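User: Here's a chain of 234 residues. Predict its fold as tokens.
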Amino acid sequence: MHPFSARPTRPTPAERVRSILTAAHSMTVVSDGLQSEVRHLDGKGAMGHIHMHEPSEAGPSLPAPRVPVRLEFTDIAPTPVRDRLRARVTVTGLLAAPYTAESTESTCMEFGQAVLHDSGGRAFVTLEALQETDLDPIATSEAGMLTHLMDSHRELVPLLLRLVRPKLTRGIARAVPVAMDRYGVTLRLEGPSAHHDVRLPFATPVTDIAQARPQIHALLAAARRASHPNRLLA
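Assistant: Prediction complete.
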């Protein structure tokens, strides 16, 4: 087997969930029969606003009756694509008291489970998996990087189609970057009535945000070297 054959080319469910929780600007908290829209997480993300711990850590310090809570997140593509909803994340758990949106302190939550819903289906993620997963260095910069690519370098996007197998581009009216993570870029290929996504993996996963631009340039350089024609190219 080739030594690099098992190299990951896309984030795990735990990485996806952690990125969504960290980059989130808002969340919906459902607790004690009330629904609260928390729209400003002050750059701390959900895990800075709500402290999640395993049930075993709570012990007798979390008095009964405990209050069930559900945190809901939607991951929306920052670029103007068809069907911008990329994923939903739901985190359930228990609180020692009813949730107060106006609280300036981190709320302590006994973690139950996290569920990721996306185009690949449903995946359950444990708190241990979240805590052991390194944060994707691109997570909090992804939206700005993708919108910059579309606003300032739109002409480069069709070039990336040279890295896509020709049969996947048949009938495509336009290509738009819909996601970026430490492993690569995802293009949404839109036709008259349908769309599908393709992954363009980086040569190596990004471990620092400073590596993102060189990796994108490497993809563009590989695309320029590719020879098959593409009708979307100017």
